[in-house]
Amino acid sequence: MIYIIHGDDAVSSYKKLQDLTEKISELIRIDCEKNSIAELEMHLLSQDLFANKKNVLFENPKKIPPKQLAPFSEFVEKFEKNGYGDIYVYSTGILDDKF
Q1: CA atoms within 13 A on the CB side of 52
Q2: In whole angstroms, what is the distance from residue 97 CA to residue 93 CA?
Q3: What does the H/E/C string look like for 44-83?
Q4: Per residue in 17-70, pLDDT tens?
Q5: Is 91 in contact with 17 (CB distance < 8 Å)?
């Protein structure tokens, strides 16, 4: 499942993120501002040794360069299609329609 949490009310959106992720023991946090598209792919598509479901949180998705949004979308689609786990996308503002 993919959860996209964003909006003008940063306090409420952050609380929603906490509500969704508070019971997750292992959450992989990825800052899209600091990580390259190759690192994003590695975190999404690499398999765990014991094939555990992954829970991946992408923060600052607005920082993904526009030319890399298509590859990012492909990785997310593969991740979801293969049932690797859940993805959480969190932004402190409103994401535009192209995201």
Answers
A1: 11
A2: 13
A3: HHCCCCCCCCEEEEEECHHHCCHHHHHHHHHHHHHHHHCC
A4: 999 999 888 888 999 888 888 888 887 777 666 667 889 999 999 888 888 888
A5: no
Q: How far apart are CA 44 and CA 66, in angstroms?
A: 19
User: What residues contact residue 63 under an 8 Å CB cut-off, 6+ apart?
Assistant: 32, 33
- Residue 90's Cβ-side half-sphere holds a number of Cα atoms within 13 Å equal to 22
CA gyration radius, the chain: 13
CA 90 – CA 3 distance, rounded (Å): 8
